[in-house]
TrEMBL record:
It comes from Heliomicrobium undosum. This is YdhG-like domain-containing protein. InterPro entries: YdhG-like (IPR014922). SUPFAM superfamilies: YdhG-like. Residues 21-112 form the YdhG-like domain.
Amino acid sequence: MEGNQATTVDEYISQFPSEVQDILSRFRKVIKEAAPKAEEKISYRMPTFYLHGNLVHFAAHKHHIGFYPAPSGIEAFQEELSQYKSAKGSVQFPFEKPMPYELIREIVKFRVAENQKKAEGKGKKKQGDR
């Protein structure tokens, strides 16, 4: 059930049954609200938000939504994510449970701050090299 050849997030979402489209659209909205300056694109064949590097990815699977906030996003919210199946840089939100949109929002905000801090650090290094 994973989106294969989509080139835009709209195309990706449109490939799924309406109930999954609703969840994916809400995911997208929550991420956009938490990261308004992030760009949307398809990367690794899934919707991706990009801000000073990859911010988060998400994807529909047969029984869950996969959310990929990088290892740091999983580690920082380990306790909150403990009820879900997770790996180093991903977490699975099963369709039979309510989606934790507020938690997703907090993780995205964390990743925005993290990527902005990294970008500022790179900028300072470049200035110091002159």
